[in-house]
Amino acid sequence: MSTSADFYRTRADEARAEADAAGLANVRDRCLRAAAAWDVMAARAVRSDRLRAEEEKRKAAAQAALVPVD
């Protein structure tokens, strides 16, 4: 898992905590929207990491197929 995803999840948790502590409905709503946005960014970071790892694995397999083994 990437550091970015961890960072985004931490920010989402912080935004949810701010929402819980908010006394005003509009502030609570703003914090919850922010938390949702951070969650989306975390999911994108995880997906990007997964796709990057799969691509590296595919390239390594393709390279291994080209190199003769002695």
Structure description:
This protein has one domain. Helices cover 87% and strands 0% of the residues. The chain has two helices and no strands. α1 packs antiparallel against α2. The longest helix has 42 residues. The two termini are 36 Å apart. The mean pLDDT is 93.
Number of helices: 2
Order of helices and strands: HH
Question: How much is the average pLDDT?
Answer: 93
Strand share of the residues? under 5%
Shape: rod-shaped
Keywords:
single chain; 2 helices; 0% strand
Entry summary:
The chain is mostly helical and 70 residues long. Helices cover 87% and strands 0% of the residues.
Topology:
Layout: H1 3-21, H2 25-66
